[in-house]
Amino acid sequence: MHQFISRRAALATTAAAVTVSFAGGRARAADLPAVTLDGAEATIRDADIGALSKGFKGNILTPADADYDAARKIWNAMFERRPALILKCTSVADVKTAVAFARDHNLLTAVKCGGHSISGQSVCERGLVIDLTGLNTVEVDAKSRTVRVGGGCLLGDVDAAAQAVGLASTFGVVSHTGVGGLTLGGGMGRLQRQFGLAVDNVLEVQVVTADGKLVTANKDQNQDLYWGVRGGGGNFGVVTSFKFQLHPFDFPITTTSFNYGADEAKQVLAKYFDYVNEAPDQLWLTVGLGRNAKGEAGVNVSGSYMGAPDKADATLLKLGTFGTVKGTRTGSMAYTALQKVADVGGRHGRFHYAKSGMLGAVEGPTRTKLIDATVDYFMDQPQNNSHALFLLMGGAVNRVSADATAYPHRAAMHNVDVGTDSDTREGSDAYVQWGRKYWDNIDPFTGGGFYINSAMDDGEKRVRGNFGGNLEKLVAVKTKYDPGNMFRLNANIKPKTKS
After folding, report:
1. Which listed residue, 104, 245, 257, 446, has the most CB atoms within 10 A of its CB?
2. Directed axis angle between helix 364-380 and helix 265-275, to 10°?
3. Of 216, 248, 280, at which residue does a domain stop?
């Protein structure tokens, strides 16, 4: 995560002058304070906004506008940032205009779709936000089982359109997540063990690159960019549309949840690691330690059978054998309903802190040490509204070579996530420290790999290490399409500098 510090006194003489005019010709306050890519002070002047508005059809928002506060809010309330300008794009032409304006004036630039960036990087302090929410078309082709999706779509938009013709995409677990950010980082979802990650189902993208050009990338055109956007994050430009492969899927889904006592946490985790070796690809499975707002701790094992209902019990009932069951819940629902189950708990406006990493097969003494590290800290260092969650990976995700896409974690069997959340900011410093210290115990087991959509306060060294053998190729793609590192508010891959 990059934070740009005000250096007005030292850098005022080098500040870029920026001017703006607005749609409708309304008067605007001149001299909006802004910041450049390298953190220098800048001023956005009314004249340049005026010039911008002549070619921009969407809304141009500044702090003086009534809609500004709503537009700058993002999912994670930990980040309270006030950009100088928000450009709400309604077309590819608007995106090209926004990118050109940001480039010409060297402005710090963020790209926002659903605003679900846990690290807060879909908005920036005193920079420019390119808001894609107006690019929200969904076009399903039932015959070819494909869908073309605007860069500003939410997952629920795609789920609804695909399910209407008996098809499903593979991505996401919260319906108000943006398709773009989720996909570019890999794109986990409840169907991933059968049909792969979102990146494994991307057939084509259209990207506005740093030079303002619209580039189409697929298996036949611009193959390097096509490779890079599938797991390399938002490093290469603004994706204005995706084309995805869809899959036949029209089952009612059986879900089961088992609660166990905190005193059996180590046993439950051990049983989980034993069981995953026989888990079918149709199973979406999580096991988590949790502590509620009252400080009460427990363990939950939840599974969704993403296949024919008559085969669900044979799999799901095994999840109730991990210990002494304290409570259980079973239900059946449509895919679109399941995709919205976490919408309330994962709603906008809460305060989140989390760290995550990838685990391979966990066997032998390493398994015992990991379980001890996970459970002992969680129990000995209580923090309300906290969790330690293991998510089963594997299946189709692992049946792709590590270098086939930029997403590198093809040997991972589990994603582990620790963190806390709250409805208020009070005590947030304490739970950030709790999360960081907890992660110090877990990280040695991960080998440094992590899901970049879960990146929080991860530094450059961890980001580079995360991509493993794919890093060198990613740097080459970044250098080709974004040599000035305009798109840096992400799990950033720095381009090569000129010698």
Report:
1. 446
2. 140
3. 248
Q: Are residues 238 and 258 in the same domain?
A: no
Q: Residue 81 in contact with residue 124, Cβ under 8 Å? A: yes
Are residue 142 and residue 112 in the same domain, yes or no?
Answer: no
3-state SS assignment for residue 1: coil
Q: Could you give the CA distance from residue 465 to residue 460 in angstroms, rounded to a whole number?
A: 8
Sheet of 283-291: strand order equals 325-333, 253-261, 297-305, 283-291, 386-392, 414-422, 351-359
Whether residues 41 and 70 share a domain: the answer is yes
The DSSP output letter for 337 is: H
Distances in whole angstroms, Cα of residue 250 to Cα of each of 216, 335, 388, 454: 32, 8, 32, 30
Q: CA 347 from chain center: how many Å?
A: 14
Q: How far is CA 323 from CA 180, 362, 387, 388, 480, in A?
A: 40, 20, 19, 18, 54
Tokens for 432, please give them.
């950030």
Query: Does some domain include residue 305?
Result: yes
Closest residue by Cα to residue 181 from 454, 379, 418: 454
Rounded to whole angstroms, how far apart are CA atoms 395 and 120?
31
Radius of gyration of the chain (CA): 23
Beta partners for 328? Answer: 258
Residues 278 and 414 both lie in one domain: yes
Residues 39 and 53 in one domain: yes
Is the pLDDT assigned to residue 7 strictly greater than 60? no
Same domain for 239 and 263? Answer: no
Q: What domain range includes position 182?
A: 138-248
Domain count, the chain: 3
Place of tokens 């208020």: 424
Residue 457 has what pLDDT?
86
Q: Is residue 342 part of a domain?
A: no
User: What are the tokens at 35?
Assistant: 């910041």
- β-pairing, 138-141 vs 109-112, is unpaired
Residues 99 and 183 in one domain: no
Grade residue 447 by pLDDT with cuts at 50, 70 and 90.
Answer: confident
> What does the pLDDT look like over 305-323, one tens digit per residue?
999 999 999 999 999 999 9
Domain annotation covers residue 466: no
495 found inside a domain: no
At 472, the amino acid letter reads E
- The full length of the chain comes to 499
Q: Name the residue type at position 52.
A: L
* Dist CA 492 CA 13 (whole Å): 29
Measured from the Cβ of residue 63, the count of other Cβ atoms closer than 10 Å reads 16
